[in-house]
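Comment thread on ticket #2218

A.B. wrote:
> Attaching the input chain for the structure job we discussed in standup.
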Amino acid sequence: EDVVDDALLNELIANVSGRFELECNRRFARTAGATYEFRADLMNIPVDRYPIESVTKFELKITETGGWSDAVADYLLSPTKSRIELASALGTSAEIARVTFTGGFVLPGGTVSAGQTALPAELEEACLRQCGFIFQNRQRLGISSVSGEGGSVSTLVKDFLPDVEAVLRKYERWEN
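C.D. wrote:
> Ran it. Output below, let me know if you need it in another format.
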């Protein structure tokens, strides 16, 4: 079995996955006890890790020296489980609120239990396609033009393959 490039491929997967998160303005990996901070006057909270499985607690901070104090909130999860919809604001725009929750996708290789959601296959496939492209073209990455006796060839250097970019658009997080 050829494992010469395994470390490079694993690094590529980690880097491309990180770029996917930056591009989509969200985190994908399921995490229990994740926190998200927001202005306390907001009532529609677009957490950065979804689908949301459960909400553990809300907290409010009025000053840095005062720290966090528990807050009580009536809420609903949006139908897509991507937002927490509060019945009333926890505070004012001059205060910060924090929610502790469990959310995100179970990544490939993990076991999906009841109430959890596996990473969509199209996202996994897009990551693998992008990694494959980078791996196959690693000697030419960053080259935008080549000149020779017969002329020159210019190419547009893009971050993602067009089909990968199309998949990522479907998983973008919009804050407002």
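A.B. wrote:
> Thanks. Noting for the ticket: The longest strand covers residues 52-61.
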